[in-house]
Amino acid sequence: MNVIEFNKLTKYYGKVKGCKDIDFNVVEGEIFGFIGPNGAGKSTTIRCMLSLIYPTSGSVTIFGKDAIKFGPEVRESIGYLPSEIFYYDKMKVKDLLKYSASFYHKDCSARIIELAEIMELDLNRKIEDLSLGNKKKVGIVQGLLHSPKLIILDEPTSGLDPLMQQKFFNLIREENKNGATVLFSSHILSEVQQLCNRVAIIKDGEILSIQDIKSIKNDNYKRFTFRGKSLNNGKFDIEGVSQLKEREDKVTFLYKGDINKIVKIISTLKLNDITIEEPTLEEIFMHYYE
């Protein structure tokens, strides 16, 4: 079952393109990554699907229902963490969360306390006294306090320190194990690599590719590093080589293709050292952003 279905979703701000022909599905129970640099159209796409803004054309269905026509109904089962969070400064955290919980037809008190303990959030502090990281924690608790079936995260880790990021990732994994579907939007590819099953790559408001994380990692990409003498000879400027950096004593590049071609070249060189590594997703996807 598809929890989210985008159908040629397009949004223009006057003549400026926010997103165009967004067309992908998110399957029930998966953690789906939405990758792109800042300004690529991720937030516009998400705001359209939540009917916070209206698309120019196209549509989105959530739980099989039109996301705009049935917006209030479907949003009851959605937890949303926006990229930027703004609250009433004079409110205490516990009062803000109690107010948020009042929109749902359930008692969220115990869940608020549980999430606050996990995220190390002081419920008695005022919003105006919180750091950026602690305000982000408030947003996380607010988005999850009603145990939503669909969790939408837009750049969720900004402001969180590395230790708290890992706690947050563990929390999202646990929510997913309990049945929640997750759409995870980020420009930090290592985060997506940790969490997601599939990814959609967006650039300039348009989807470039939708791929499975495992297939990407097993797609014969290798990172080569050679050290030796007189290596700056152009021999590695061949098909399949990208991100080539050559010096007299060092050559590095990313390669996808017949490994025997590389072996044939290095057999003619005098090397002091050779390293072959699995590349990161960031390295693999870099050519999409160039």
Keywords:
single chain; 290 residues; alpha/beta; Rossmann fold; Alpha-Beta Plaits; 2 domains; six-stranded mixed β-sheet; five-stranded antiparallel β-sheet; 10 helices
Structure in a nutshell:
This protein has ten helices and 15 strands. It has 290 residues and is of the alpha/beta class.
Strand order of the largest sheet: 7-8-9-4-10-11
Mean pLDDT, all residues: 90
Largest sheet descriptor = 6 strands, mixed
| Number of structural domains | 2
Q: CATH homologous superfamily of the largest domain - what is it?
A: P-loop containing nucleotide triphosphate hydrolases
Set out the fold topology:
Elements: E1 2-13, E2 16-22, E3 25-27, E4 31-35, H1 42-49, E5 57-62, E6 65-66, H2 71-75, E7 78-81, H3 93-101, H4 109-118, H5 132-144, E8 150-154, H6 162-177, E9 181-186, H7 189-195, E10 198-203, E11 206-212, H8 213-217, E12 221-228, E13 241-246, E14 250-256, H9 259-266, E15 271-277, H10 281-289
Parallel strand pairs: 4-9, 4-10, 7-8, 8-9
Antiparallel strand pairs: 1-2, 1-3, 1-5, 5-6, 10-11, 12-14, 12-15, 13-14
Notes on the structure:
By secondary structure, this protein is an alpha/beta fold. The chain has 2 domains: 2-213, Rossmann fold; 219-289, Alpha-Beta Plaits (2-Layer Sandwich). Helices cover 31% and strands 31% of the residues. The chain contains 10 helices and 15 strands. It has helices at residues 42-49, 71-75, 93-101, 109-118, 132-144, 162-177, 189-195, 213-217, 259-266, 281-289; strands spanning 2-13, 16-22, 25-27, 31-35, 57-62, 65-66, 78-81, 150-154, 181-186, 198-203, 206-212, 221-228, 241-246, 250-256, 271-277. The strands form 3 sheets. The chain has a 6-stranded mixed beta sheet, with helices on both faces. β5 (57-62) and β6 form a beta hairpin. It is elongated, with a radius of gyration of 23 Å.
